[in-house]
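Give me structure tokens for this 191-residue protein.
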Amino acid sequence: MSESKTPKLTTAEMGRMSVDQYREADKLPLVVVLDNIRSQHNVGAVFRTADAMRIEKVVLCGICCCPPNQEVHKTALGAEESVEWQYYKETQDAVRALQAEGYTVYAVEQAHNSITLEEAAVKVQRDKVQSTKVAVVFGHEVFGVQQEVIDICQGCIEIPQYGTKHSMNVSVTAGIVMYRLASSLRLAIKK
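Here you go.
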């Protein structure tokens, strides 16, 4: 067997921090709000991506299951222990609390007057939206973000799609949005 020109990194070579180090580390001022996500695996996947992007916290609302939960842990792989989280019975209460803390809150939804994810990312980077404090709301797998929640958000972000389906899995959508906004926030904070 020949030696690879690009061997994969070992865990030790990646230099990942411990859960305690993660909790103490600076986080991006990005909050993810989950509005009635029914799948425990989707919740876990969001925690895992939130950990990878080192965002501030995940807010679970309504029917979302909360850690500790075996099914969440299956996909989160322990990220539910490193990422700060909160629970609100009503998503509207979570949105209002974040707005009171100075966050600009966007629903991730296909809606009239929505802006594309790229437009939102440029806006975050250029305008340093509310001193770069941003929250994004992701909705139920079938029904999306509740209209009552959309109505109190500062706007909607949409990922352009070009195929036959009108939506993507919520954890995939969350991963795309977190990655793009986290990239813009890192650039905005450096300025």
